[in-house]
Amino acid sequence: MASKINIADGQDVVLRCPDGCGKPNGPAPVEVVWKYNGKRIIKYFQNKEFRDDHTAQYKFVASDYKNFSLWLRNGKEGQYTCVVNDKEQCIHDLQVWTAKNIQNRYLLQGETIQLEVISSHNDYPTTRIKWFSPHNSRVTGNEPRWKLVNNERRLQIKNLDVQEDDGMWKCHILPDGPWFSFEVKVIGFPNTLGGNDMTFAAIDSRVVLSCPLNIDLSKEKSVRNFPKLQSWELMKDNKIIVKEDVSSNANTTYPAKEIPNVRLEDAGKYQCRFIFAEGHLNTSVHLIVMSVSDSSPGLSADKENMPLCCQISAPLSAKAELCWAHMNETRCQSHLPNSTFCQENPTLGIWRCSLKVENNMKISINYTVAEAPTANLSFPLVEILSGVGVLLLLLIFAGLCRFALKPIRQKRQRARRMAQAKQHLLEKKTCQCERELTNDYYHT
């Protein structure tokens, strides 16, 4: 019965002839012949080696009468038979495998690809082949997107996904055959779940909405066979918010929108769209906003508590819940109307509202419930009396100053009047003298 040997295309191989061909203490075999598909290719006879094709790359491994294994360089597929002293010793069926080349280019998320190993022998349905994903998990063929066809020689991967499909795939020809590797490069969104990535933000906080790809466009777009990116868009409610022609701007990478003060109306689904020459990439970002509010700024003087409510902008999923935590107590609830969870009688202190999805906290807000300041309604008698006292003291001081300065002012006024009177008398006497002299000359 022929033994099956699987090798990769271009691989060297040694085909063994049983060690019993030459016994250590026995006579040397008279003749050893290797045949390929029934035709002799090399012969050992009378301690000499004879080759039918001197250009072929094969030879005996050793000619010491003990080992007449055949070494093949770049082995050819077919049947090799070892004959010793006209007696057939062994038959090897050599099967050469090769990996069908896939186009060496990046693939867009959502495309379909086929990985395949081929051999010219198609009559070996019993050949077993194992496929392994980039995460080293065995492909069974029962996966929703992975399908094995043609006796497991071909693996079809539908709807390529970045997380599961990007990387190095491997194939093993059993039992001891070659391994083949296939590098699959997928362009897509690294952190999406079902094409819907969630971003959580507290009200009045800053948030940046973006749709980064799993590769650096500024580095990869110069690589040969890289898909040509033409433009990208960011939309909400089917209205374009941001759009840019990437082909004309080498520094542009990903679409992004900054919201400095998030409001509840900013919540909702945003769509990202990358437009390549070969196709499109689409995903969405769901912005969920959380707010905490109290119907009054604090507790009133009579300790009458007001409701404290926590709200998110989207309906809670079956795996999500809102939780209120205060001191060492925590209350959680899901399936809430209007996605609001209220505490009817919050006590003083710090309250924390958290949104949990599958018991993982996504966002939380702290809110401090404090006692409201009480109004002072008593008559401010002390303040008024103190104000009147200060005013009276100022009036008395002003009066004393005026009384002390009055004699000085009066003396200055009398001195000024006497000086004026002397001046007037002097001027009057001078005028009289001049008038008298003038009259005397006239009469003369």
Mean pLDDT: 80
Briefly note the structural class of the backbone.
alpha+beta
Give the CA-based shape: elongated
**Amount of beta strand:** 35-45%
How many independent structural domains? 4
| Cα gyration radius (Å) | 52 Å
Q: Fraction of residues in helices?
A: 10-25%
Overall CATH class of the largest domain: Mainly Beta
CATH-defined fold name of the largest domain: Immunoglobulin-like
User: How many DSSP E strands?
Assistant: 30
User: What is the number of helical segments per DSSP (H or I, 4+ residues)?
Assistant: 3
CATH superfamily caption of the largest domain = Immunoglobulins
| First and last CA, distance | 186 Å
The unreliable regions are 297-303, 375-388, 429-444
Major sheet details: 9 strands, mixed
How are the SSEs ordered, and which strands pair?
Layout: E1 3-8, E2 13-15, E3 31-36, E4 39-45, E5 48-51, E6 58-60, E7 70-72, E8 78-84, E9 87-99, E10 107-108, E11 113-118, E12 129-132, E13 146-149, E14 154-157, H1 162-165, E15 167-173, E16 179-184, E17 186-187, E18 196-202, E19 207-210, H2 217-220, E20 229-236, E21 239-245, E22 256-259, E23 268-276, E24 280-294, E25 308-312, E26 320-326, E27 329-333, E28 340-343, E29 349-357, E30 360-369, H3 381-443
Parallel strand pairs: 1-9, 10-17, 18-24
Antiparallel strand pairs: 2-7, 3-4, 3-8, 4-5, 6-7, 8-9, 9-11, 11-14, 12-15, 13-14, 15-16, 19-22, 20-21, 20-23, 23-24, 24-25, 25-28, 26-27, 26-29, 29-30
